[in-house]
Amino acid sequence: MFAREAVTEEDIHRVLAAVRLDDLVSHLPHGLDTPIGVEGLQLSGGERQRLAVARALLADWQVLVVVEVTSALDGVTSDEVYNALRVYCAGKTLVIIAHRLPRIDPTDQVVLVDQGAGTVTPGSRAG
């Protein structure tokens, strides 16, 4: 089982496109069936991050916590991954822990922590 019982190949390709891994998969010799090594060692750090996000987005969950989920990505790809998170997490709880504020909108709350003290800003826009 990839992430949940009812996941289809179409679902997989849709989420891979959302996190910009569709081009990589299209160039693999056996597509989705291509071995990528133990713990994905044949992938770059950014590809591993995006694959982890894709798997999480295909899972059946109500709360998702991501930590430094785009730390190995360039700005454009990072924005696209955060957009995928926003779309796939609609109606669910998404907690983003990051040193750089993502450009994800809308957010219900932003908590900025500086030297252990947190400031909650309801209805803030991150970015």
From TrEMBL:
InterPro entries: ABC_transporter-like_ATP-bd, P-loop_NTPase, Type_1_exporter. PANTHER family: ATP-BINDING CASSETTE SUB-FAMILY B MEMBER 10, MITOCHONDRIAL, ATP-DEPENDENT PERMEASE MDL1, MITOCHONDRIAL. Residues 12-68 form the ABC transporter domain. This is ABC transporter domain-containing protein. It comes from Nonomuraea recticatena. Pfam families: ABC_tran.
